[in-house]
Amino acid sequence: MKPAALGPNKNAKERSKTGNLFTEIWKHRMTYTLLIPGIIWLILFAYLPMGGLSLAFKHYKANMGIWGSPWVGLENFKYVFRDPTFAQAVWRTLYINIIKLIITFPFPILLALLLNELRMRKTKKLFQTIFTFPQFLSWIIVSGIVINVLSYDGLLNSALQLLGLPTINFLGSEPMFLPMLILTDIWKSTGWGAIIFLAAISGIDQDQYESAQIDGASRMQQIFKITLPNILPTVTVMFILNVGGLMSAGFDQIFNLANAATQNVSQVLDVYIYRITFQSSTDFSFSTAVSLFRSLVNMILLLAADRVAKLMGGDGLFR
Amino acid sequence: MSTHAEKRHKYRVGKMTLLDYIMFIVLIVLALIILIPFLNVIAISLASQKEYADNPMLLWPKHPTLDAYRALFEDGRLLTGFWNTIKILVVGLPLSLFLTSTMAYGLSRNKFPGKKIIFFLVLFTMIFNGGIVPLYLVMKSLHLTGSLWSVILVGSFSAFNMILMMNYFQGLPESLMESARLDGAGEWRILFSVVLPLAAPIMATITLFYGVAFWNGWYDAMIFLRKAEMLPLQNVLRTIIVESSTNVSNAASVDALNKSGFSTGMKMASVFVSMVPIMCFFPMLQKHFAKGVLTGAIKT
Questions:
Q1: In this protein, which residues make up the domain named ABC transmembrane type-1 (chain A) (predicted)?
Q2: Tell me, what's the pLDDT at A142?
Q3: How far is A25 from chain B (nearest CA, A)?
């Protein structure tokens, strides 16, 4: 794995290829015992559930469990794809996440540029601390703050009223749901997102700026001609990785900021799966079929995003 | 701008231009947008009902009172949540560190039969998972639903953290482990008495990663736990905040508020109380998470 570590064992490695497999296994028996706890965890909580996805092709009977229920082929999927709420949930997921991605994506870059241009080091640190803090709070805590600030009689509406402006029903109206998600997401995540771009900026060769300054380039010119082109690979990779998450992003936020008034517009795929599985009493086979669809699309998006990121010359998710 | 060939990042006193001032003001405004909601939450938690009703834009209570906090602790539900989360952390953190470090050290060893397959099986969990429905059924068949163990066990291993740790272990000098091996130490002894003492930085990082995940986690508990007295902090907070304010938007909210038994002051007090531990650890969190993120792509 690591060249330096392989050095002294080169001979052993060559011998292992021709040598007896069992001697090799016996030689490493201690290493295998180290792996056992982790493997048990993987089997119980990752691979058994994956096997449980077979339920998507079965008719679930509670008394027979996952493994004993009878096979029904693709029958569940027939119902899934005929269900209009399923199609709506898929569409809603993509709609919310694509619009959210397009609008929120530039903010961390702008903030990173702004912070980078700030000359006062200590103040910069303080700003970074303030901006990144909300990222570490759960969406439940943030929902508490958001509901308090955006509710009908909350801080923001009271301020609007004071200024003689019309109040906005942020939380309880369908057309305001997506703008509210975008607003709160920017509030929570922009600062943290900026950290990644700031790191990319700090990696830029300072000589480029020096020679630009000698040539009399203005700061704006330096930003557009040096900083932005240099962080473009990072920007591309971050964007593509976000595309990889389109099917699953935002569940915590949506689930905790939705309410009775926004029930319909908040039904993204993960919310739909939760509601049909644990709230209404649809059979588990049906929701497993939806789950399998979701996991597959997720995987395809992720792998495609990874491939594209690599083609663009970035690192991708998996190197 | 400056034509001096000095380093751009050097502190340049007395060279603030108009542009600098504008950017500084923009940053201050942005910082206020982040801070004011927090101030509002804290102020309301410290104000009397009447003071809040008179002015919802409260940022600094004139007559601070701890009534809301007193009522919150008397109610006790949030405290139960706190206690449950602490139980999860006390058992979950050592368990997750054990599972993660044993596997990370095992996989950081030199080539052995099956290493690639096992590593792939770990990596695959990052790309594909069964989703919540089969996981719920498996937990149920293991008789873990309704017990805190379900939440602890599900959260006690993460492929991402394992790979971060594995990369760190691979960077340690092999000669140290080799000499311990010559002294007759087994791999377990080497892990605990040679590798882990050298791995304090990564252990701190990973502990914080798991700690924040356990602290902020709520979905598993919502699915696996049924009894209210078992719910961790976030879920209790969710009951107090989200579920009692389904109709915040209309005038009926006043009734809903009264029914839930939690005044706005108490709600904001519970938000603040749930936030305090994150605030205390924040300087550490910021440093370690940035490091984790900047390690960037997962090297395999």
A1: 90-305
A2: 96
A3: 6
